[in-house]
Amino acid sequence: MYQKFKGIILVAIIVLGGPACKTQKEAEIIHYNDFVDPFIGTDFHGHTFPGAALPGGMVQLSPDAGVEGWDWCSGYHYSDNSLMGFSHLHRSGMGAGDWGDVLLMPTTGELKVVPGSKENPDEGYRSRFSHEEETASPGYYSVQLKDYSVKAELTVSERAGFHRYTFPKSEAAHIVIDAGHGIRNSYRVGSEVKIVSDTEIVGHRASHGFVKHKKVYFCAKFSKPFQAYGTWSGDNIKPGSKEDSGVYTGAYIDYTTAENETIGVKVGISYTSIEQARLNVETEIPDWNFDTVKENAAGKWNQALSKIEVQTPTEDSPALQQQKLTTFYTALYHALLFPATYSDVDGKYVGLDGQIHIANDFTYLSDFSLWDTHRAEMPLLTLVEPQRNLDAVRTMMAQYEQGGWLPTPQQFGNSYTNDMIGDHPVAAIVDAYKKGIDGFDAEKAFEAVKKNAMEIPPADHRSKGRVGLEYYQKYGYIPYNKLRESVSRTLEYAYNDWCLAQFAQALGKTEDYEYFLKRSTSYKNIIDTSTGFARPKDDKGNWLEPFNPTFVGHGDERHYTEANAWQYTWFVPHDVEGLIEMEGGKDKFLMKLDSLFTISSEVQETTSDVTGMIGQYAHGNEPSHHTLYLYNYAGVPWKTQELARKVMDELYHDGPDGLCGNEDMGQMSAWYVLSAMGFYPVAPGQNVYTVGSPTFSKVTVHLDRAYYNADQFIIETVNNSNKNKYIQSATLNGKPLEKTWYRHEDIKNGGTLVFQMGPEPNKNWGIKQEDAPPSMTEN
């Protein structure tokens, strides 16, 4: 079953007395890993995986139970009771299936080289398992394979997986390497295996799916020489064969094992070559001490999680305290998984030009799901892992130099995907730069983001640049009869233009600043003031009829991205004041915003992404994530406080179904981490955090002195509890804070923010126009 915890570590235990007395510093060790349950999000539509990974590591070694179906995008769903084996690459909370490369499975008895089905596991190498015999913690996973009486344990280094299999007494023990396996069988292009010696097998898998032209190389080393071996192609087993290739190939090895004999397998992964995969595993895991690798992985996670230290209110029951700690630190764990390392241990990587390059003085990363993660995930990294944030920006710059364009808005592997909408590299780059994470060529970066915003790529390169830019430039919006998802694209490009304006201003480019600031008001061209909704408009300027604001739609009738008009109208994060005016003023704005959370949740022709409903607010998908914070802009901050707590309390919890929608590469969890601390970046690039309702009695954010002017920033609450969710008053560094926001500089310079909490709203705090978060500027 999913991981349970025996106790709650609320304060450090200090051992006193006697000659063995430890110093306070030595005794104050908090094991943050104990609060992480990797099974959270593996049920419902969370699409997370429970296996072993490191913060931003290349390898995610995890069980695969299914490879088809939307809820198996990570290869695992908590409803399963059999699994196929353990593969080395997974993505957290994606809505698209891919990865699952290089699968290993230990078996006994008759050799089988096809996985078999969930309905009849006996027809293949698949094995039944029970959640009661399955455990997971940061950097470690184990499960008992019932059909083979084998205990499988997994841990990882940055670029290699380490398997430890404990076998029963058997004269027919096997380890199967399925080189053709992957999540989505239709994505297979080719694979190869080669048995190099009686302790090493190498190969690769190529696929073409969500990630275009993906090729993964591996080098597997075995702690015990195998007695026999072979390969297969399809279901054709070839005993004694040392090499094979084709669309679906693999290798197997045979052993005679004693009772409880352990066999280790180290698997290096590389996107560059087999030789690089061998270098990765030999460098990172030079010996066969599984427990040392496991402990190193746990240590890296504990260090990463310790960046944010929280204390629960004493008014909370022990059970509630444990739930809050587990939910929070698991969210932080999920948020730190990606973006992932892509370069090898010596810096080599395959660029977007298909050539091998070397990352000098930085780690080349991958998996920028920026439509999702520009909102909260990337801003969270600026706080707790600014170096990885800088690596991300430097990676984007390398991608621009090698591929000619910044990926918009997503990049996985060495290909442009452009699967989602928007131009959000600019948001991530500007947000980092303005926060002082500026170890990159800012002029070159501006050149890159401006090219995306101004140049239309050739017809054969439409996976690059802004899709529909020609219409956006011509009409000031994207007509629905020219391009699908036209409303969402227009709204997001307007925000992207505002980000560009902020970058231009920071670099002293006045003409560019004025141009992009004006273009950032393009959202007004699709706000229908008669209905108050962002609405599809054709190239003649006519509104779409008939119009149903609950309609999501599919295909050419999909005018909003995974959402409807109720959910997307609010995506004007950079100019909320302007949106309020378009809605007819504060009163009408508030009436419509109230209605969002109170009307029926029924949605017409929806998609599986639209989940976590409160009225028409859909927290299970990213376009809604900033919306409840908009009450701060309209002078009723207590409604933000109430709704922030409602979402945290009702739509997140510590069970396998503890996420109300796709994790989406850390965004769903990053929202929780920031909101639980009591703030949220509505418009990344603005350096402003707007206030919510902190759920902890104390939060200490430990800052990196290389990027910050202080060691920590503290948020304290007085009289906090589940009922006392409303802010009564606040002080920042001892001075009254009446505003419902503060600047990144306040965090950067260190200090203490204190909130007095109470059970009823204080309708006099933060209500004045001058108290509202700024729009368009930071003034």
Give a structural overview.
By secondary structure, the protein is of the alpha+beta class. The chain has three domains: 270 residues, Beta-galactosidase, Chain A, domain 5, CATH 2.70.98.10; 185 residues, GH92 mannosidase fold; 112 residues, Up-down Bundle (Glutathione S-transferase Yfyf (Class Pi), Chain A, domain 2), CATH 1.20.1050. Helix content is 25%, strand content 23%. The protein has 18 helices and 39 strands. A nine-stranded antiparallel sheet has the order 7-8-9-10-19-14-13-12-17. Strands 20-34-35-39-36-37 form a six-stranded mixed sheet. It has a five-stranded antiparallel sheet with strand order 5-11-18-15-16, with no helix packed on it. Helix 8 packs parallel to helix 11. The protein starts with 23 loop residues before the first helix and ends in a 21-residue tail after the last strand. The N terminus is likely disordered.
